[in-house]
Amino acid sequence: MSPKASLSIAIAGSGGAGALTVGNLILEAASAAGWQGLLTRTVGPQIRGGEAAALIRLAAGPVECMPDQFDLLVGIDWLNAHRFGSEIPLGPDSLVIGDPRGGDRPDNFAQSGARIVDIPMKEMAKAIPDGRPNMIALGIAGQLIGIGEEALDRLIEKQLAGKGQLAIDSSRAALKAGYAAAAGLELGHRLPPPAARSARRWLASGNETTALGAIRGGIRFAAAYPITPATEILEWLAPALPKVGGSLLQAEDELAAINMIIGASFGGTPALTATSGPGLSLMIEALGLATAAEIPIVVIDVMRGGPSTGIPTKSEQADLNIAIYGLHGDAPHLVLAPQSVADCLFTAQWATYLAETLQAPAIVLSDQFVGQARAAIDRPADVAFIGQRARQTEFGETYKRYALAANGVSPMALPGARGGQYTADGLTHTEQGTPTSSAVDHQSQLDKRRDKLDRFAYGVHWATIEGDGDIAVITWGSLTGAAREAIDRAAHDGVNATLIAPRLLSPVQPDQFAAALKGKSRILVVEQTHGGQFHRYLRAHYELPGEVRVLNRPGPLPIKPGEIHAALTKWRT
Amino acid sequence: MSVVDLQRTCKPADYKSAVKPIWCPGCGDYHVLMSFTRAFAQLGLPPEQIAVISGIGCSSRIPAYTNCYGFHGVHGRSLAVAAGLKVTRPDLTVVVASGDGDGYSIGGNHFLHACRRNIDMTYVVMDNRVYGMTKGQPSPTTEPDFDTALSPGGTGLSPFHPLVIALASGANFIARCFSGEPNETADILVEAIRHPGFSFVEILSPCVTFRPDEKEWKSLVHPAPVATTNDPARAARRIMTDDGFNIGILYRGERRPYGPEFGAQAADLAELECEFEQ
Amino acid sequence: MKKSDPRIDTLADLLAAAYRIEADAVARYEMLAEQMETHNNPELVKVFRNLARAEGLHAEEIRRQAGGIDVVAHAERIGGWRRGESPEEADLSAAHYMMTPWHALQMALAGEKRALAFFEEVVKTTKDNKIKTMAAEFVEEEAEHVNLVHRLLRNYPAPASSWARDNDPPASQ
Q1: CA B31, CA B38: separation in Å to the nearest integer?
Q2: Structural domains of chain A in order of their starting residue, each with its CATH number
Q3: Would you call B26 and C80 a contact, using CB atoms and an 8 Å cutoff?
Q4: What is the pLDDT of residues A304-350, one digit of tens each?
């Protein structure tokens, strides 16, 4: 996607100014008009009244990352706006609209060379009974994006239906005033018209699509301990699970949450919990138990800045190491990562399917960016992955829960099945499940658990592989969209690159990876970590041919498509 | 055990597995195992309908010694495993086995919340006031002057009072047993399992290896001199003032057990995505 | 909670109780033999197995003596014992991994004495002459068992006070 194929808007404001509400309304109205889009938010540390900005990017086709530059910034006010100044990059083509009485505009906005326009939103709102400046801002943005005023008008009526006629009337009046105030203004370029709709339109966050994907994959129980930025998954599941015969239990801590889902799954109910880095750290011991006792579970880790409490509200990819290597002992398990809001649906569903099929824990590494981003997308196609656990219901003299099956997957007895009684155990056990410290049993059970993951045919979904060039851009997770956009732009500059983004991070797929890298002479690794965890992971498990460069940076600033594009085009052979 | 043998199971032996315990001879936990199998037989429950869940420690070895479905998890988390199981499988009888280290120290937080949550299950803690598996360190119920390698001269700390904490946290049934009285213990376990909600049974179970002094418990225990109460205030006064060797059912509450409201399975998965549709 | 021993109202009750005493003893000795097996005390495995066999013979004798009465089934129905264990069930808490035959025989002796006391109590309290007569026979038998254990004990004197000394420390798990 070229920079002019999309339009990006930032709405900033503090102390309940309603910037985030404006962002949501813009995305929804644009989506109704046929555009696709992505909305992220950046907020201060306050629970209420903090400074906030809504960042929206719209285009005719799918939008999976934020732009290099914003085309429009509307500041309802500038209080503490410097805190996220670096998250709203501007350029000479950008337009900044602010209220002259909205406080000191951060210097970097003007230093970018952007055009500055004052509109007294506060004053205009005062002229309207119960008028709100954010609705003026909405009108300004609507006018400049090219969203029909009627569309936003209808949306306001729908959204404020419960708040009384005065609220509706005043908001409409403010909206109108905003449209009028921006009438003479133009942005650097116009948003290309939306494509004809080919699918039903969804508005959802990655956390929400993750939750739905998990249910589609078969999840019927969730244990919940709130943590930013994963809580929305649990809150979405709380009312949804009972509708499909499931349930959610709030745990006293993450240690309980993971053990609760292990208990539920032991009883035969596919189960999930969602957390972020600090919670995942607490869950590691029990993930080892689920590995050893061969109990399928799904843990969604919505990554945030780390280590320790880190930055709860901002994204990073630095839980890769703990997810893959954090368990003590040799503990093969599944690690997957979704690549977009739409892909959260698929990956969560596939992870559930794989966990159930392989009787192993699956960690899904989502992140704050994709989890909390709201996207206007085409409804993703349905897939057939529904967890089907191998079960045994008829038993002879001795049931071997951990029998050394050829494919490593031994059918499971569920409590209630007569004759199948066994004790699931985290201690090294025999095929029957009896604790043992024998070297032979230890080795054979370790082999079994490794082989069942290694011998499974994961099919094409293990990675996104696109394009054909002698440079490979290898990335993962939510950076896939930025890499794809960069490769697309580089192609216009005559630089051909291949995108390789593994969705399945563990177990590793050496043969498929080698095939994908065949003929590549240069490798660009792109990741959002400080320590280059993904690069080290690739080095540990795969042969990387030719010259290898790494573009890595910790959170919270996302790696922009332009940075990847620059790395590609500046790389002279 | 063959399927045929299980057709009519009402004998304690039917609830015992072929796995041989590794407990020290003389350990109170042998008696507790006996009480388990006797209680299950009295209840006439099919063994496959019972799940025995545990954590880590000598006492937590008990699931594999029963012929029930068992779960031997990580240290201190048995109550959480049991909660997940019982909420999703209300048809099962869930019995959780723990010890004073597993249940009161590393698992202490779960104990509070399991009492508070009041899910229908029975929590049995075999209290020997010492860590046996790791060779004799003080546990939360160990006396302050108990001299060990880890706490030379004793911890100097007041012991944790499990029954008081259970009551204050909302347990719906509270009893104290002595392992050396397996029939009485079995009878109390039967009552505990039958009682709706979270039942807490503390069983004084001597450790002959690291606490040979606990052999004295046999002469110290005595039946609770008063009848069971459903009044938490009265139960609190009794539990806080008794000598710690009062055996019997000390509290039987009437709180409604926790249970999720299951929706009709009928709902179409497609309904769930409605809120995404524009 | 059980406040009393099983009620003996009929001859069947008495035979069932007698049978149960022996059958419980067998199960208990078997259990102790298993414990000793696990804890590598083969001498005691043999002693407990022998005790189990002896009690098994007694149980079989009683079953024969009962003739048409199904004591096995009836034994399931009679109540439990006051102290939770039937008289000849060896005290589990007295077991020790380094125990000697002398200790096992002390356990057995205590059991036989408890059984003796149980039947003596029946003789003393029953109003039924037939029960009294049969209970007296059991008293005689148990007294003989007590003597037998005493005789066996002559071959196994009390061990030195160092019997429980272990040259190895306990193993942590």
Answers
A1: 10
A2: 3-181 (3.40.920.10), 204-378 (3.40.50.970), 459-569 (3.40.50.920)
A3: no
A4: 999 999 999 999 999 999 999 999 999 999 999 999 999 999 999 99
Token couple for A260: 């609760």
CA A384, A385, A386, A391 dihedral sign is positive
Distances (CA, A) of B57 to A73, A250, B75, B78, C60: 61, 27, 8, 11, 41
Domain C11-158: which CATH number of 3.40.50.300, 3.30.70.360, 3.60.150.10, 1.20.1260.10: 1.20.1260.10
Mean pLDDT score, C113-136: 95
Mean pLDDT within C135-146: 96
Helix A149-159 to helix A133-145 angle, to the nearest 10 degrees?
A: 140
Which chain C residue shows the shortest CA-CA distance from B180?
C93
| Chain C residues whose beta carbon lies within 8 Å of the beta carbon of residue B25 | 32, 35-36, 39, 92, 95-97, 99
Q: In whole angstroms, give the CA distance from residue A472 to residue A568.
A: 10
Show me where the domains of chain C are located: 11-158
Average pLDDT score over chain B: 93
Burial class (CB in 10 A: 0-12, 13-18, 19+), A302: buried
CATH topology of domain B17-276: Rossmann fold (3.40.50)
Spatial distance between the Cα atoms of C119 and C136, rounded to a whole number of angstroms? 7
Domain boundaries, chain B: 17-276
Does ipTM surpass 0.90 in this model? yes
Which amino acid makes up residue B152?
A: P
Report how far apart the first and last C-alpha atoms of chain C are (Å, whole number). Answer: 37
The tokens describing B211, both together, are 């606490």
Q: How far is the C-alpha of B277 from the C-alpha of A209, rounded, in Å?
A: 12
| Residue-wise pLDDT tens digits, B199-247 | 999 999 999 999 999 999 999 999 998 899 999 999 999 999 999 999 9
Is B267–A268 a contact, with Cβ atoms under 8 angstroms apart? no
pLDDT of C87 strictly over 80: yes
Taking the C-alpha atoms of residue B192 and residue B171, their distance in angstroms, rounded to an integer, is: 11
Contact (CB<8Å) B69/A221: no
